[in-house]
C-alpha cells in the first residue's frame, strides 16, 4: 500500500470515529483517559525499550544534544504523561454546552451548542510526550485525531499509541479515534494537510520553519503558533520596582519559551534612571543586551542592535532594548515588529493602561504583569495544545474550548417562515 | 503600475487604516455609516448613471437575464442600501467588549476582549449592493476592507465607493478603511488572496465554483459558504400537520436560497400516510419530486432519484425524497450527503429531538421548525455577511461578531511567574 492510500484509509477511519467520539458520554471519555494513564503506567518498560531504540538511532544519526534531550522518555516524563491524562480527565467537558438560548420574535427558540471540530491532524517534532498530551485534549473535546510525530521518535510514539488504544478499548470507544501515523515517509505530512474531506483542522507544533511550510501547503485550516516576539514596555509613569521585577522575570524566568520577552521598550523619559540598574541585573544573569543608538548613549558597553534584532525571537539569554518617545511609539513598534503573541505595559497611568490594552494587536495584552503568564495553565485552561498567533478562531493559549466550535440549535413548535 | 504593485499598495493602506478603525469610537463609526447613507441618497442619479453603463456593457456582452437582474440598481435597491446602512449603525458595537474577567490564583485578573480581525478581503459577483452591505458590516466591526466585486459591476461599484469615502471623510475616519478594487484585471483576485501580511481573512460570496477556487488558492484564512444541501426529516413520531407545513415551507417559501430544503427524508413507518398528501401539495406548487426506489412504490408517478441527487443543491423547484428506517439512518444520510448547513427533524419524541440536535453535524440544527429560519435577520444578528459552512471560527450566519475575535487581557499589580 502506498502512502496516499494509507493516509486516505486513516482519514476515512478518523472521519467515521469522529462521529462516535462526538457523541460519546463524558464519563466514557474520562474512563478512556484514565485507562490510558493506567496502560502507560503498566507499560513503562516497553516505553523505555522503544525509546531506547529511538535514542540509539538518533545518536547514530548524529542528532545534537538538545534534540536527544527532547526525544528522551525519562521516568519523570512518563510520570508527566500519566499525570497529564488524569488532569485532562478531571477537566470539564466543553462538548454539548448550550448558551444564549432565547426566544426570537418568530417563536423559535435559538441557542448555540458547543461541538467538536471533527478530525484534528497534529504534526509535531521530536518530543514523544506530545503524542499523549495532544491525543488527550482532542479526545476530551470530542474530536478524532491523526498524529504525525517526528520520524526520530517513531518507536516511542508507536509504543505510546498502543497504550492509547488500550485505553480507548477499555472504555468501549473506537480505537481509530486516535491514530498515530506508522510511517516515517515525509509524504504522509503532505497527504495529511491536503485531505479536507477527512481532516477539519491541522495543529502543527514545532519550529517556525515547519509551521510556515505547513501553513503554506495546507488545504485545510491551520491553527498555528509562529513565533513569540514578546515586548515589555516601561512607560514614563511606571512603578520602578514593578518595572524591574517584570523586566527581569519576563526575560530570565525561562529563555526558551515563546512567552519570554525578546525586546524591551523603555520610555526615553525614564531610561537614564532605569536602564543602568536593569543592565546590572541582566549582566549578573548573563543576558546579552543589544541596544538602539539612544540606548547605547546610556549603556555604552553593550552591543548595537540591528534592524533584524527587532524581528528576532532569540529563545536565548539575549535581549534587544529600544528607547521610545511615549506609548504611541511603543505600540507602533509592537504592532510592526512583534508576532501578535504577548506584550505588556508597565505603568501606573489609567488612561495609558486602557489604551494599550485596546490598541496592541496581540493575543495577550498585559498591564503590570510578566509576559510569562501567557500560558494555558496560568490562564486556567487546564492544559493547552498550543498558543495561537492567528487572528481567526482562537487567539492565545488554546485549550479544550479552542478545539471546539459552536453550532446553532433551533427549537420550534412547527414554525414556518412567512 | 502593475496589478501586483497596485494590490500591495491597497494592502499597505488597508493595514494602516485597520489600526485606526480598530480603535475608532462607536459614535464615529455610526456617524460614518449614516453619512454614507446620506451620500447614497444624494447620489441616486450618479449611481443610476454608472449602473446604466454596466447594464449596457452587460447587454452588449450577452449576460443572461438573471445576471442582468442581479446587476441592476433599481430605486428599491438603492433604498435598501440606505436602510441597511442605517440598520448597521443601530446595531450594538461588538468591539472592545470584555467578558469572563476573573482573578487567577497568581493574582492576575484575566479576561477576554472582543477585537476586530484586521483587514478583510471580500470577493463577490455581480450584485453591486453587496459593496455597501459588506463595507458597512466590516466598518462597524472595526475592520478595514478591500472589496473586489464582479468586473461587470465596476462602474456601479466605483460610484458606491465614492459615497462610502464621503461618509468616512465626514466622520473623520481614514478613507482607506474601505477600498474598492478599481481594476477588472482578474489577477487582482489572485493577489488579494495571497497577501497574508496585509489581509487577515477572505470572505468570498458567490457561486460554489468561485468559492472553491478561492479556498484552494488562498494563502490566508477563508470564511466560506459552499452550498446549502438542507434536509427535513419527518420522523415516525412527527405531528402530521407540523410535518406538512414545514416540508412545504422549507421547500417552497423561496427556491433560490441556501437554507431551502433540497432533500426530504421520511421515516418508512409514516411514509404511506404522509407522502401522497405532501406530493399533492408539491404538485400544485409545481415542485418536481425525485424519489428513491421505496418512495416510487408509494408515489409511482414521480421521477427516480440518482445517487447524484442526494448531493445536489437544486436552488429550483425540485426535491429529492428518500425513505429511511428510523432516525439513525436519517442522521447518517445527512452527515454524509449534506453540506453541514441546516437540517431539521420533525418529531414529538423528546429523546429523538435531543439526539438529533447533538448528532447532526451542521451549522444549524432544528426541531420542528423550517430550515428557512437559518438567516442572520431571523437569528437576530441584525445583518449577515454570509452563512459559514466551515467548522472553525464561525458556523452558520456570520454577523458582526463573526468578523471579530477575542484576545486575552491581563491586569496585574506587578505579578511575576515564580
Percent range for helical residues of chain A?
40-55%
How can the largest sheet of chain A be summarized? 7 strands, parallel
The Rg value of chain A, from CA coordinates, equals: 24 Å
Shape of chain A: globular
Oligomer designation: homodimer
The number of E-state strands of chain A comes to 16
Average pLDDT figure of chain A: 95
Low-confidence stretches of chain A: none
What's the arrangement of strands in the largest beta sheet of chain A?
10-9-11-8-7-12-13
% residues in beta strands of chain A: 15-25%
Label this structure with key terms.
four-stranded parallel beta sheet, 2 domains, Aldehyde Dehydrogenase, Chain A, domain 2, globular, seven-stranded parallel beta sheet, homodimer, 418 residues, 16 strands, alpha/beta
Word description of this protein:
The structure is a homodimer of 418-residue chains. By secondary structure, the first copy, chain A, is an alpha/beta fold. The first copy, chain A, has helices spanning 3-22, 26-42, 44-61, 65-71, 75-90, 129-140, 154-170, 187-192, 208-217, 240-252, 268-284, 293-298, 307-310, 327-337, 350-359, and strands at 98-103, 109-116, 119-124, 144-148, 178-180, 201-205, 230-234, 261-267, 288-291, 303-304, 318-324, 342-346, 364-369, 386-388, 396-398, 404-415. In chain A, the strands form 4 sheets. The first copy, chain A, has a 7-stranded parallel sheet, sandwiched between helices. Chain A has a 4-stranded parallel sheet with strand order 5-4-3-6, sandwiched between helices. In chain A, helix 12 links the parallel strand 9 and strand 10 (303-304). In chain A, helix 10 (240-252) packs across helix 11 (268-284). The first copy, chain A, starts with a helix and ends with a strand. At the A-B interface, strand 2, helix 10, helix 15, strand 13 and strand 16 of A face strand 2, helix 10, helix 14, strand 13 and strand 16 of B.
